[in-house]
Amino acid sequence: MLLDMAAMMPDYDQEAVVSFTKFVEQLPAVLNQVTQGISEFKPTPSENCDCFKKSYNVKHTLLVKFNFDPIDETDLLEETLNPRVESLGGTLEKVLLTGNHVTPCIQEPRWQVGYAYTPADAIAQTLKNLSLNDTRVLSRTICNWFRRLEE
């Protein structure tokens, strides 16, 4: 019903509707897995670690850890990858940033300023900037890391 309503709006964002549709279509399967007690990914984190110990071949690696991520395993990943990266003569860098598990997924909210700039536009712009701050820091961190590799 929400998707039908969005399609009726004159300036709706079709790309956002398609993305939202895919998200909604996945919900029943995810909720079913949660109710069955499935909480692990396949392969499991320990299976991934075993694979990384044997076959990780990336010479330069950046790990990003967020300060509000209760399911973060960056420290374990660093411990697992470091010997392998060192054996390749590479570098492994870990950074701690403000954010959480979904920070890399946050998208810029679309807000079309009206004909006249109103207080609602000012509030929306402020909220938009606040919501994107951590994502922008992440983006700059990654870009700067790549630039250092080019030097």
Describe this structure in words.
InterPro entries: DUF1350. This is Initiation factor 4F subunit. This protein has one domain (40-150). The N and C termini lie far apart (53 Å). A two-stranded parallel ribbon has the order 1-2. The protein has helices at residues 2-8, 14-35, 45-55, 74-87, 119-150; strands spanning 60-66, 91-97. Helix 3 (45-55) packs parallel to helix 4. With 151 residues, it is mainly α. The longest helix is centred in the last third of the chain and has 32 residues, at 119-150. The chain is 57% helix and 9% strand. The chain contains five helices and two strands, in the order αααβαβα.
Low-confidence stretches: none
Arrangement of strands in the largest sheet: 1-2
What's the tally of helices? 5
| Total beta strands | 2
Q: How many domain units?
A: 1
Structural class: mainly alpha
Measure the end-to-end span. Answer: 53 Å
Helix residue percentage? 55-70%
**What's the helix-strand series?**
HHHEHEH
Offer a quick outline of the entry.
By secondary structure, the chain is mainly alpha-helical. 57% of the residues lie in helices and 9% in strands.
Q: Which terms summarize this structure?
A:
mainly alpha, two-stranded parallel sheet, 9% strand, 5 helices, 151 residues
Give the arrangement of secondary structure elements.
Blueprint: H1 2-8, H2 14-35, H3 45-55, E1 60-66, H4 74-87, E2 91-97, H5 119-150
Parallel strand pairs: 1-2
Helix pairs in contact: 3-4
Keywords: Initiation factor, Protein biosynthesis
GO molecular function: translation initiation factor activity
Protein name: Initiation factor 4F subunit
